[in-house]
Design brief:
- The structure is a homopentamer.
- The first copy, chain A, has about 350 residues and is α+β, with helices and mostly antiparallel strands.
- Chain A folds into 2 domains: about 270 residues, CorA soluble domain-like (Beta Polymerase, domain 2, 2-Layer Sandwich); about 60 residues, Up-down Bundle (Methane Monooxygenase Hydroxylase, Chain G, domain 1), CATH 1.20.58.340.
- Chain A contains 9 helices and 7 strands, in the order E-E-E-H-H-E-E-E-E-H-H-H-H-H-H-H.
- A 7-stranded mixed sheet of chain A has the order 2-1-3-7-6-5-4.
- In chain A, a hairpin with an 8-residue loop joins strand 5 and strand 6.
- The longest helix of chain A is centred in the last third of the chain and has 63 residues.
- The mean pLDDT of chain A is about 80.
- Chains in contact: A-B, A-E, B-C, C-D, D-E.
- Chains A and E meet through helix 5 and helix 7 of A and helix 2, helix 6, helix 7, helix 8 and helix 9 of E.
């Protein structure tokens, strides 16, 4: 269940604004990557702590601070004081169990979205939170994942001819969003294949395990939808440029992301309907199988029970049973039995119970 | 059913504004705790009755009156006359069977919300009503619960450095709301664990009891949702500051509560969908089990009924049955029976009925 | 079905505005009760016909005309000409098969609502139509019911100190509405108890009759919802005071009724969901029962069919069957049978079919 | 399926505005009835073709042209050129497979609605399209039906005192609409009775035929809903008087029709829910019946299989079987069998399988 | 699954605006058909590449460029630079896995819709993307399909008297849309017939294959709906003339298309409900069949098991069994058996198990 709900109860009773990390406490170091760039220069440095605000933000260049690991309150509070963030937003940054949302501060936008990752989407989907703080000249990204999902963006950033270098931090934010949404499509494809496999299994050989896979997929889609649904509203607000931090020529790009998010949601819904259809087929396959079993039982029992009765009759020990003494009695009875069986079989063929 | 609907019928026919308590009449005393505080002072007193309005409300300090027990009309009417409340709001205060709601009076806000409490959320959820009356310099809270859920807030209030002491009664109201919503998360976790347990049970060993737990959980979620759903609208209105009683710098805090309430509702919906999925699995598990039982019956019957017939044939007492006199007749028949059984078993193996 | 739809077809083909009563024509007399009151005086008279408009409406006092029985077109048309009502509204007054609605005339409001009555709500719910015509100084109420549901209001009206005597006809209308909505709660309680009873029955001893009760309850809720649902919109419009006929200080009272109506609707929805849940349990209880029956059959058949086969084998009449001549053959076979039965029982115990 | 969708494909590939009739081509003549009236005069003439526009429309009197049969393009195009209608509206007039809709032309309103007709509503519902073209002084009605549904309106029109004669063509349009909606109620009643019949059948004697009736009713309701649903929006727009062609004093009449349409839709939804409930009962009745069958089988088999086994044991031919030689062995065994049967019956009584 | 989701993952990680074709790379040539026309002239040329922008667009005539095959990025980028399109729109043009949408550029409209094609709609539905770029004097259409669906439009275009030649490119766009929507009706008819066939099959002879057809149809409708649903919004926006590129006298034509799209969607929903109903019938047919099988088994077993028992009793070898020596014992027993069988049959007739 941990995937649906994290241990929020840790926080019950604490005063609002207290910085508490609700994920699993780990010994991993915090990794901070700071990139400064403008159309001419590109500079990158790696840190493990944030000692002062010096050089963190400058007017003539764009700064992208990527913080990998959220479990160290001191890093967060340092960051908060450097950027003058509201304590509740700081609290939100550390709380990895949030709904995706967009909040407007005085001079920054705060966006929480979910990154999805999986090796085997049908079985197991990991939800990671990515928080973005977008300021006039900076972008802060925070997440827990060890692997850096943004390497391709960083590569493009190194190329001084790329649009990224000519644009503001809102375009950088768009690029990161785009990477995340593109990943959703990869997961959708995996899920689509899993559904296709299930579809065959349900028809050819449905077992209790099939049902569990079906249920697992349904749950994965539930989690997926929960993660993606609010994104539509967020990206729509980004596109409508609610804030002066978003430039006019970035809007079409957010519009593009919006279309993609919409398509992801639409496909999730389609998948959900397909799964519901598969469940119906599964249930009726089980019923069909029961019918088949019952048919076999009924055919066997209906043929042999009367025959056994006839045999029983002639097995009775009455002293006066004329048939027993007939010369061809035994063969007549055998023939009669054959006849009964044949009539039964014809009846079943008429009922289409044979060969079905 | 009492949890869904209280004995409202007691009130049928009474004139509007009549003060009637719809809960169980109990002998418990009413406990009134009055806290006066401002940024310098903190004063707390306990009472069992409200004799006059003297000192109840003052301009230079904030007063928090917590009334524990609603069954005494005289306390209510005294309070009403001190604060000049509309008779219908007074009636609402005593009626513990209300929907959560927010009402604006001339110089106070009246909020009704539901506190949830449980030792074992999956089985039994207690819904308690908390009424808040927020005035310019006072906050009245009324509830029935014996235990005081607000002890941690009171502790923070004693600390003169806390934000609570610097802020108005709206911030105090926020803190109480926050405590209640944090409790919702504790219950959600308990429910999440109960669902997880059920999930395993449904797959491994579904019994009629499993179904009852499932139904119980569904009902608890129904009650939970009924209690939380209207809260979203209420907190949203608090955040939009419909009233001058709400200060501007408290708005982000209500925004935070709003996000939490939204997440609670979202998780409840997710849980409901998961339960619906579990019911499907449960039903198909029962069908599977029936199939398994039928398979055993069919295998046994189908093998032995023909054999019994053969035995019956050679138990017939015809005088002329040549096989009976053959030297190896008996063993030939035994061998034939073995052959029939083997063929049957092969057929069942082909049908994959064995080993299932 | 008559409860869902009355004999509307009587009206097909008639010209609009024709006064036709769609209920059952009865010989009952029409009973007209006219109450005149203001803060000083109270006067009440009973009539069986409405001969002229004299004294029906006066500026210095409030007149409440309660007409009991709608089947006499001449009373209606007399009333219509006294109050100058639109012919379509007159037609609506006589048509007892309407949706609840609120219509604004030039100088009156026309409200249609449904009164519910029942002795045994789970089985049988009577829907009666109450029409109210609210004018500047008068209130006309029309209904079919023989019993007068408004006796308590009339009692309060006799008390010259009551708020009713100080207020206008809109407050009187509110009081009548309040009486009707309070009755809804009584019915809700009856339904709640019926559901509780069903809940136990479904789990302990579900029969075909249980299903019919369930269906009956579902249908009652359907009718209930149909009657109450439009009321929400109506009371909401009354509260927002769309018309000058509604005074400002009556608004909070309509707000109160609105809350109650909302709660009724909400509880109906909750009941509907609970019934849906009960149906699921009922269906799976039947499946469980089938499983139990099949288990008994399978256990008995699986144990005795092989044993009977063995007995059959030694009942064969072959001349050469060595076992038959053994001294302890019979007992050996009996012992072998016992062994087979024991093995079967152990298998069933492993499958958990025994004791279930 | 023809009832859900007509042969629209005939039109695929034709240029827009081409006049093609999608219904079944028939040899029936077109019948044109032209009525001219004002408050003084009434004139009626029957034609089979529309040769010129002379006298079709005049300022001092109202003209109602009723065209019965849509399959003659030349009549349509003549009409179109007389009234200067848009070619697309002309195309719509001939296309009898449209959704109900309201379209505003420069100086006329174009309304498409569905007339429903049936002898046995539960089985077979005929949907006919009625098109109305409402101009300043004229009303054109077009439909396919042979029978004239508007005879009562025509009768009223002949009465020079009737409201119809004093009012404009919009009131005439209202009267026709009213006739059609009144017919809906007749059909609703038939459906209501069919559901009532089904309700009894489902409980007392559900067969495969019951299910088919249920399905048939569901489908009829689907078609009914499809025909009526858009009418609500249309009548609502007529009532709000979007067009100068609608006079102010006709609005309350359209309001009345709106209420009726609303009630029709509401009742359809109620019927749909009742049918869904009936399906549940039907399915569980089948399950119950299966349970009953299985109970009989289990009781018989469980009693006699052990007894047969006992008989089989004493039918064995062992040479040494002491019981066989006892004097009362046979009777002891018979008594033992009786005992076994009695124990079984007691067990079944405990399980409540008997008498159920 | 490929029909629900194309290989979007190819694009993950690419920079935005990169021109990548997500369909199957094929060796087919790109076919470009350029038509220039105005009210006097008509000129048509075929190309396989787009070398320069010369003569592509001119003010005094309308140009329709139809590009058949999207897999060549160089053609797209050439087109983009000729018409100065946003790189994201160019990217969208090549991406054949999009939701239908309408986007407004500075001086052109960009519309994506889905063409549906099928030989056997019930089984297999092909979704092709059609992109339209509508400029002041030009219309560009892009699709992948080999066959040209627009031949009839081209024929009409050659006729200098046709409305097409007198109107702008928006009317041309309307004509193409109309062709596509008309095709939807053809598919609807095929689906309608498939449902009709299924309807009979479900009632008369439901097999596992019926269920698969049902599922297949459901899925086809899912894909159909996904393709058509967004079209409603698009055509509605075209009708409301959001852009100066749409002339006023084209609006009624788009209104007509809107009505058709609405009808398509409505019919899809009706079909979906009918399929859901068919599934219910299918499931209950299976249950009925199981009941029938069980009835046969129960009748046979219930009649013969007791008889066999009786035969077994008289097959016992007790030395003292008086009946065995009676003269008419055998016939008495036979008669008794007949009696038992008759009683059983009467019981079954009473239960209505025979002849069902």
């Amino acid at each position: 269940m941990s995937r649906v709900l994290k241990k929020r109860s840790k926080k019950a009773g604490l005063s609002p604004g207290a910085l508490t990390y609700v994920g699993d406490k780990e010994d991993k170091k915090v990794r901070i990557t700071i990139v400064h760039y403008n159309s001419r220069d590109y500079e990158e440095e790696d840190k493990t702590a944030l000692n002062d605000c010096l050089g963190l933000v400058a007017a003539d260049r764009i700064t992208w601070v990527n913080i990998n690991g959220l479990h160290r309150p001191e890093v967060m509070s340092q960051l908060g004081s450097c950027l003058k963030m509201h304590p509740l937003i700081l609290e939100d940054l550390m709380n990895t169990d949030q709904q995706p949302k967009l909040e407007e501060g005085r001079d920054h936008l705060f966006v929480v979205i979910k990154m999805l990752d999986c090796h085997d989407a049908a079985r197991n989907i990991q939800v990671e939170q990515l928080s973005l703080v977008l300021g006039p000249t900076y972008l802060i990204t925070l997440h827990e994942q060890e692997a850096d999902p943004f390497t391709p963006v960083r590569e493009r950033l190194k190329n001084s001819q790329s649009r990224l270098r000519q644009s503001g931090p809102d375009y950088l934010a768009y690029c990161l969003l785009d990477v995340i949404v593109d990943r959703y499509f990869v997961i959708l494809e995996q899920l689509g294949e899993a559904i296709e496999t299930l579809e065959e299994e349900v028809v050819t050989n449905p077992t209790q395990k099939t049902l569990q896979s079906l249920h697992q997929l349904k749950r994965t889609l539930l989690i997926f939808r929960k993660a993606v649904w609010p994104l539509r509203e967020i990206v729509s607000r980004l596109e409508r440029r609610d804030s002066p931090l978003l430039r006019e020529d970035t809007a079409p790009f957010f519009r593009d992301v919006y279309d993609h998010v919409f398509q992801v949601i639409d496909t999730i819904e389609t998948f959900r309907e397909m799964l519901a259809g598969l469940l119906d087929i599964y249930l009726s396959s089980i019923s069909n199988r029961l019918n088949e079993i019952m048919k076999v039982l009924t055919i066997i029992a209906t043929i042999f029970i009367p025959l056994t009765f006839v045999a029983g009759v002639y097995g009775m020990n009455f002293q006066y049973m004329p048939e027993l003494r007939w010369r061809w009695g035994y063969f007549a009875v055998l023939f009669g039995m054959l006849l009964i069986a044949a009539v039964m079989l014809l009846y079943f063929r008429k009922k289409k119970w044979l060969g079905g």
